[in-house]
Amino acid sequence: MIQLFRNPNYNFIGRRRWAYLLSIAFILLGLGSMALKGGLRYGIDFSGGTLIQVRFEKPVAVERIRTALEDIKLGESVIQEFGDPREFILRLPSQNASVEQVTAQVQGALAKVPSLGRPEIRRVEFVGPQVGRDLQLQAIYAVLVSMAGILIYIAFRFDVKGGVASVAAIIHDVLVCLGAMSLTNREMSLPVLAALLTIIGYSVNDTIVAYDRVRENRGKGARRGEPFAQQINRAINETLSRTVLTALTVFFSTAVLYLFGGKVLEDLAFVLTVGVVTGTYSTIYIAGALIVEWTEWVEGKLRRPKKVVAKA
Amino acid sequence: MRRNFWLRIGIVAAVIVGSLIYLYPPPFVQPLLYGPAPAGKGGLLPRTINLGLDLQGGIHLVLGIDLDKALEAQVERAATSVRAALERRGVGVKRIERRGSTELVVELASAQTWSTAQTAVAELATFEVKEADQAAARFVLAMSPREVAQLKDLAVRQGLETIRNRVDQFGVAEPSIQQQGDNRILIQLPGVQDPERAKALIGKTALLEFKLIDEKVDPERAVREGVPEGDELLHQRRVDRETRQERKIPYVVQKKTLLTGADLSTARVSIDQNTSEPYVSVEFNAAGAKAFGELTEANVGRRLAILLDGNVHSAPVIRERIPSGQAQITGGFTSEEATDLAIVLRAGALPAPVQVLEERTVGPSLGADSIQRGVWSTLAAGVVVVLFMLVYYRLSGLIADLALGLNLLILLAAMAAFQATLTLPGIAGIVLTIGMAVDTNILIFERIREELRAGKTVRAAIDAGFARAFKTVIDTHVTVLVSGLILFQFGTGPVKGFAVSLMIGIAASLFTAVFFTRLVFDLIYMGSRKHASLSI
After folding, report:
1. Do A272 and B432 touch (CB under 8 A)?
2. Do B376 and A257 touch (CB under 8 A)?
3. Where does a domain end: A72, A97, A127?
4. Is ipTM over 0.95?
5. Which of residues 142-181 of B touch A (CB under 8 A)?
6. Residues A158 and A123 in one domain
7. CA–CA separation, B229 vs B234, rounded Å?
8. Domain check: are B270 and B290 in the same one?
C-alpha cells in the first residue's frame, strides 16, 4: 500500500503565526503589484472594447503588425502574440464605427503588407461600455452571493464560527488568486471569474472535511479536556492524506488544462491551479487557524486567569 | 443485502444503456429524442452534443432596445387621440407636444374650456394630470407608471417576435433568441458566415414611413437656414457603385406621417424590366390600401417621400390616384439588399431602434481548433488521474477509474438529453470534473483505510467507510453546487456552459463514486467471507 503520510502528526496550528506572515506577505505583494500596475487588468468582457484574433500564414513580428495598423489610426491598440507566433490578438479601444467596419479596416491594412501573408480573422469580439459596467457589478455581486451562500450553509451545518472562518479563507484565496494574476500580467475576464467562483465552492471542501472530523472526534468523547487547538490540529492531521490527495488529482487536471488547453483557456486554468493550491493551504492555516484564534479568544474572556496555550 | 444486488445492477445497467442511447441514438429513436437527424458529419464529439458558438463558430449578439424611443413613439401616437378626445367635447387645442419620453404638454385655445378639458382628460386611462396651470390654460399629462411598464414589456416582446421572424426568414439552423434582463435581446446564430449581413438584417429598425415633400421650400436653402415649423430636413443616401462614395441629398418633408409599414400585407423583390435593377414592391392591407388611395388622390402632382428608418429611399411624383394599394421602393439596391429589405418589411418593424451592446464572432477554424485542444486535454487529464488512482489504490483505484469513466459518460449523455450547450469553458468544466469526481472516492478510500488500520474486518471497513464518508461527501457536493448555481445564474454563453458541465459532473459523481463504486465493492468483497485483505 502506498501511503503519502503514515500517521501524520504535524504541528500545523502551532506554527500558524508563520503562515499568517506568509499569507500577508503574498497578499501584500499581489496588492502592491496591482497598485503599481494601476489596478487589475480587465479584459474586454469588463472594460468594453473590440478584440480581433488574427492568424497569419507564417510567423510575424509584433512590430510589423503595429506598423501596418498605424495608417488606419485606431488609437492605442494592444497587440499580443496568442499562443503561436502566427497568431495574434489585437485589442482596440471603443470606436465610433461599427465592429464590421473596424474589422474590415484592420483586414485591409494587414492585407496591404504583402510580407505578412494572408491574414485570417478568426474571432471578433465587441463589448459595449454599458455591458462591461454591468458585468463588473454582477461579478462582484456573484462573488458576494457565493460567499454568503457558503457562510449560511456552514453556519447551518456546523456553527457561525466555522462559517466566518471559511469565508475568511475564501477571501484569502480570492486575494491570492487576484495577486497571482496581477503578478503574471493576466487579465480579469469572464472565464477567470468562473474559475474564481469555482474555487470559492471548492476551497471550502477541505475545510468541511476537517470540521466534520473535529465534530466526529468530539462525539466519540475521546480525550476529553483536550485544548481546542489540539482538536483542530488532530483533525487536520487525520484528514491530511485525503486533503492532499484530492488536491493532487484536481491539481493534475488543472495543470494539464493549463499546459494543453490552449491559449483561450490558459487564464482560467491558471486561476484554477493557483486556487487549488491556496485553497488547500487556507483550509489548514486560515480556516483552521482562525477558528482556533476565535475560540481561544472567547475562552480567554470567559476564564481570564486560566489562559489556554496552544501547544500541540 | 444480496437480494438488492440485482436491483442495483439493473439500475446501473439502465443508466449506462440510457446514456448510450442519448449519446448515440439508433436511427429509430433519433426522431423521438431529438427530431430529425442533423445533416453533416460528426467530429471528435458525438453529434448529439450541442456545441456552443465558441466551438462551432457563429455570431453571439446582444442588442439593447431603446425603450425610451419606443415610449416616445407611443406618446406621440397618443397625442393624436388626446387631441381627438378634447375636440370631441368642443375643447379647442392650441398645441400638444411631447416632453421627455412619457409626458405630453397640452395648451388649450382658451382658459374658458378648462373644466371641460379636465373632465375629458380624467377619462383617459393611460394618462394622469401631472401639472396644471389654469391661468395659462396649460397642463401636463404623464403616462401612468403601469402603462409605461406595460408598454416597455410590449416593446421587448414585439422586438423578440420581430427578430425571430427575421431570423427565421433569413434561414439559420438552430438560432437562439432570448430576452436578457429588462431590455436586452440575446441572439445566437451558429455557423453564420457573414456577420455584417446578419447584423444589418436583425438590427434594422425597418420603420417604413410615407411623408409628403414640402415643395415650397428649397432643400439647399433649408440646409443653410433651417426648416419651417412642421417640416423636417431628411436625407437620401446614395452610394456610388464605382467610387464607393456616399452622397447625401437633402429633402424637406412634412413631419406628419401619412402611412407606415404597419399597414403592409406583403413585400417582395422584383426586377425592373428596363434597368434590370432590383426593387422591392410592397402591398398594403385593406385599411392601408384605402388610406393610400385617399392620400394619392388628394396629392396628385406632389412628391411622396418613402422613408426607411428616417432616410429617404425615394421620392416619386404621384401621377394619379393609386387604388390597388401597391407601391414600389426603389433606390439602387443590390439584389442582396433588396432581399433583406423585403424580409424586414415582411417581418415588421422593430418597436424602437436597437443598439449592439455586445458582439462575438468566432470563425469555424478557431472553433475546430478549440474542440481539438479541449478533447486532447480532457483525455490527458483523464490518463493522468486514472494512472494516479491505479497506482495509489490498485484494485480500488481501478474501480474508481471505472466510476470516472461512467461519470464522463453520464455527463455527456445528460448534456445531450437536456440539450445543454457545450462550450470551451464547458470542456474545462469537464476536465475539472475529472479531478473532482475522484475526490469522493479518495474520501471514501482513505476512510476505509483508516477503518482497516483500526482493526476492522474488510466488510466492516467497507461498510463503515462508505457510511462515515457519506455525510462529508454531501457537504462537499453542496458547496460546489452552490457556487455552480450562482455561476449559472450570473454567466452568459460560454461561462454558463462551464457551470452546466461542472454541476452535472458533480451531481453524477454522487451516483458513480458512491452508488456504483459501492456496488462493485459489494460484488467483489461481499460475495464470500474468504477475503481477508482489501486491495486499496
Report:
1. yes
2. no
3. A127
4. no
5. none
6. no
7. 14
8. yes
